[in-house]
Amino acid sequence: MDKTYAIRYTPLAREDLLDVLRYISEESDAPTSARRILDKIESDIALLRENPYIAPLSRDRYLSTQGYRALVSGKYLVFYKVDDDAATVVVHRVVYGKRNLSWLGL
Question: For the chain, which residues make up each domain, given as ranges?
């Protein structure tokens, strides 16, 4: 890939990341682990700058027809779209992978 893509987070994706941090920090009483998990997710997302197509299209038929890709980051899924014209990766949601994904609203 010749170009570098910008990463943009939707407000919902930013809230998802804060929810991950809050939940693990407060409910599990593990702020160090929470920070480490969040750093890993952000590091995996940063890989999309150089390799926006590294993750496959979502396995969900509707999401894949809408162009959503699903990046696995530990126990989390990062749903994003690639905008080649703007050379941008738009992160739409970051969710725990074992949750029922029908509520995503993408």
Answer: 6-98
